[in-house]
Amino acid sequence: MRLLLWVAATWLAVCAAAHPGRGAGGEQPLLRIAVERTVHAVDDAARVKASPLILGLTGENAEWVDVEFFHPNPSGDDWIVLQSPVLCTAPIKTGKGSLKLQLINQREDFSFALFSGGLLAPKLIAVSNKVAFVNPKAPVYPRLAQGKSWNEMTVTWTSGYDITEAVPFVEWGEKGGRQFLAPAGTLTFDKNSMCGAPARTVGWRHPGYIHTSYLKDLWPDSLYTYRLGHRLMNGTRIWSKSYSFKASPYPGQDSLQRVVIFGDMGKAEADGSNEFNNFQPGSLNTTYQIIRDLENIDMVVHIGDICYANGYLSQWDQFTAQVELIASTVPYMIGSGNHERDWPGTGSFYGNLDSGGECGVPAQTMFYTPAENRAKFWYATDYGMFRFCIAHTEEDWRPGTEQYKFIEQCLSSVDRQKQPWLVFLAHRVLGYSSCAYYESEGTFEEPMGREALQELWQKYKVDLAFYGHVHSYERTCPVYQSQCVVNASNHYSGPFQATTHVVVGGAGASLSEFTTSKIQWSHFTDFDHGFVKLTAFNHSSLLFEYKKSRDGDVYDHFTISRDYRDILACSVDNCPRTTLAS
Question: What's the whole-model pTM score?
Fold first, then answer.
């Protein structure tokens, strides 16, 4: 059996077995622990030792630590706990042994504790020495994102420096050229910003300070270098290591452009220990496959259910550390899901407890999006020949709402001669899914989803619609009003017929079962972890690939070939009015 763990900055520690379920990841495992029964039962003969004492001496944000332990009266209910961040370990089955665990810089010292007594009667037996990063406040985990204009890149990062201690900035410029300094704004949030437990109680941990800098007037496709900086009040400058990125192409630019799309990834521990929702190995496999192919990827879109912190704030550090190699190199665009936003009485469309009391605050603070209102989380972003319209399913999308107006404006305002590839994205399945849960509801979709939006998709000739929430992969035929307008294929050419809907929520979280019924519009399903890669070769040719996270190989694919006149051509329910006048 594997255990999972949360630790406060006190002696209390809790663990629980993972029990993931559809979308939600099941009951929050940490709630099962009898925290109120925790007692000190220190045994002078027991010991825990951690080394090395100082981490990050050569600038690393993550480092391996050796933990040696001894318990004179061992039992199967013993485990080792990391105090400060969220981390998990396997239970200790012997009285003496060692563990090798990876720690990341989370702005605090660390120590390890030996507990016994199981989940219902936890007893503290011994505590190790402290270990610490050489600079716990150092700038870490940069996250790039597209700005509000095509030639702007934003850089967001985390540090332990409040603006009263140090001034944040970014040093950046074209590779090999002159370097400039760009100022950064600073945000954070406190416990009172959380909407409920556990985020407001046992799950609370200060998120540090979140800085964002705007790098503007970029040259298309140019390579830039950057590093994060803080100027202390005595004039000393604290630096991160150097990173690099390639600027976005001009909208409509005819060049090779590649975008990876997935949802519901979560996080896992690289040292083999378990985090509290037990999402490994899917999460790490997806991360590693994207890193392996990073030279052939220009942007990533993660459509909701980001890290499943569920109110345990330390998980956001763990996630941003996991994706650092990706997010520091290419824009990492996110959408919001139920595990980021939902909480009763806070304006979310669904009144469930899935965010663990976060009610969207950590997500909208930790990651930048070019939304007019970052709390609403819907926005458009252009990348060369692509237009992406990213909706927010945790707020009402139906006709007459503010979000419906945004969706129509985003779809209708694109110049298809310059940007032929129009993509709609949302977390919950607003289109089509043969997930067993949706079948049980009798909808094969999120209720009121396609009924509200399918006329827009058809009218504005949306090529692809992507969803997460269901933890598996599925591709439909080009479908409208639950009917295949044309048969599914591995190659489409000529005029647009209907939107192809894709569920790609299998990036890491526990998998979702499909119905056993035969669904006419469902073409390809895969009960496995994976992600999608889109490659636009030019204005007339698009490649779609579904890859499994376990090996990075392609298991489903198709191409679209068409000219601009094919986009202008009429199909079902999208012909504009004409006149008999000459």
Answer: 0.93
